[in-house]
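Reading a protein record of the kind used here takes only a little practice. Think of the row as the fold of the chain written in a discrete alphabet. A record is reproduced here so that you can trace the correspondence yourselves:
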Amino acid sequence: MLEVTKETSLLDMRGVCRSFPKGSGEELLVLEKVDLTIHSGEIVGLLGRSGSGKSTLLRIIAGLITPSSGDAKCRGETIAGPPNGVSMVFQSFALFPWLTVLQNVELGLEALGVESTERRRRALAAIDLIGLDGFESAFPKELSGGMRQRVGFARALVVHPDLLLMDEPFSALDVLTAETLRTDLIDLWIEGRLPIKSVLMVTHNIEEAVLMCDRILVFSSNPGRVAAEIRIDLPHPRNRLDPAFRQLVDNIYARMTQRPEVRTPAAEGIQGTGMGMTLSHVSSNVLSGLIETLAGPPYNGHADLPVLANQLQLEADELFHLGESLQLLRFAQLSEGDLMLTEAGKRFANLETDARKRLFADHLMLYVPVMGLIRRVLDERPSHTAPAARFRNELEDYMSEENADETLKTVVSWARYAELFAYDEQSETFSLENPH
């Protein structure tokens, strides 16, 4: 086995790209020319929006998929299949329900051919370390979500990996449970009690990244690229209320809300809002509620995103989706970590329900080209109907099938609220009749 030193990196990736085939036969580029190096003794965070390719990168490192191009090495050797010395903790716990806690933790050691007595000794030590002493004989269904995730950590740690990969390991937990588990892990790391050399974690929780990591790589989307590297020099334990901590969080919010380079052709003279724009499904009721919140005190039309996220108990990713939807519709402006209502947004907040719907419909027709396209096709056809497949096929020229489905789902939801046109779920048909 190659000895790991500061000079010999645990992980070294150069120019890694990854594409997946689309239904049209073309390739969808998910990762583009990603460079990443991890040395011993650091916690590195991959921070980015959902769909930015972070989890795909983690699967390449774990040897579960191969890069389309580029070079990925673990301890100096090209990754071809799961590399020795790398363990992974999943978001979904991924426990075998028919096995006890002890049996779940022993699995990795069994796969390595470790003798049963030694296997039991090491599994019990890992269970004790992660705070589950006394639950060795319990089955997963008897444990809380936080305890099940602790089993996941114990199973990953028991093989004493050089590199621990974590794919949003706290996102399925409630706020207090996640905070307790994060704190326990950082305490064990600081005390040198974790049997690992380094950690690489995927997250879209900005505060979590600043709380835990020595270094953060901010990913941009479509395709996923490393947009920035941020070093976190704050000493542990870190205080969320520390002005330096808050400033780092604010800076990252600002960086992640910068307008990306537009790669699709502009349509109808409006930059970045052509048929190639993926619409994230956000309820019109939620958008209305956010506009009302922004319009009222204490914000009065202008909110700092980290403050707003804390008040509304939203992840940064969720808030970005909401803010970008309001920005697309020209009801708000998202910039430098702030969300500000436009004059149209302020007007919307003060209107009655029917007037709101009319204003929403006007903005859909002006700023969401796929809405205008569907309405024009329905107006021009004698039957005033059209199959969803006709528009889905057009969207798939610009985006993946999954994103096309998400976009159409959003179109249906927003159009119903605005009473622009109707959609029949069974026949998958748009129409101008009974637009409710």
Summary: The CA atoms of residues 325 and 369 lie 14 Å apart. Residues 284-431 form a domain with the Arc Repressor Mutant, subunit A fold (CATH 1.10.10.10).
